Known about the structure:
Distance between the termini: 55 Å
Bound molecules: S-adenosylmethionine
CATH topology of the largest domain: Rossmann fold
Shape: globular
Order of helices and strands: HHHHHEHEHEHEEHEEHEHEE
Number of strands: 10
Strand order of the largest sheet: 6-2-1-7-8-10-9
Helix content: 40-55%
Structural class: alpha/beta
CATH architecture of the largest domain: 3-Layer(aba) Sandwich
Radius of gyration: 19 Å
Number of helices: 11
Strand content: 15-25%
Amino acid sequence: MSDERDWDLFKQKLKVKTGIDLNEYKANQMQRRITNLMTRHNHKSYVEFFNSIENDKKAFADFIEYLTINVSEFFRTPEKFSELEAKVIPDLLAKSPKLNIWSAGCSIGAEPYSLAMILKDMTPSARHRILATDLDIEILNKAKAGVYNGNEIKNISTSRKSTYFNIEGDKYTVLDDIKSRIEYKRHNLLLDSFETGFDLILCRNVVIYFTEEAKDKLYRRFFAALKPGGVLFVGGTEAILNFRDIGFASYLPFFYRKPF
Ligand SMILES: C[S@@+](CC[C@H](N)C(=O)[O-])C[C@H]1O[C@@H](n2cnc3c(N)ncnc32)[C@H](O)[C@@H]1O
């Protein structure tokens, strides 16, 4: 089988089994990652590799975890979270006392839990909605469990650590009160339909391997999913150059606002 045919068949099989369409990801980077893994396990073709893990639940879950790269941490890029807390959320609360928020590509839950802590401190008696979604079902189970190590929580202030976690040695477990504020759901940003009416959408460090077309389409769909005045918050290397074409107004670096 030619290399191209092998890759095409592999993509087809993966799509049928998981809904993940590698045509919307940058081919070079994806092939490099998958080839590394295959060579480690001595497989000669993508299809042979796929067949070898297809019916092994653990090996398949490990592969998806490797493919989706779910490294994360609380308050990732702390200076951006400071702006979120000092400016963006107060601006949103001035318009609506109960916020509807979506953490898209939430990975281990560090992002939605960081938000829940900020909101609990700012509006102790309000009940906002935080929807947190990811493609990877295994990572959502980790998020729901809410157990972290010292490295993942290194950006959290000492007072928040002691207020919002049960601490046993190097094991930090998010308290149930914070856990209960997050609604977790499996969702593929490149395939599934979007809800609408969000005040804030976070999509950070998710699109690195998406093609330019897939990113553009995604940002337009986020725009449609926001309320007028709503904000899209992206990762520290993911500035949207054509934000005006999409309809966003200039607001703060890495935060894009839908006009009122
Ligand atoms: C590096 S993590 C980012 C986590 C968090 N947003 C942060 O900034 O720390 C990227 C996450 O995006 C998810 N992801 C990748 N492609 C996706 C897709 N098409 N739909 C939904 N989630 C996706 C991965 O499963 C992974 O958990």
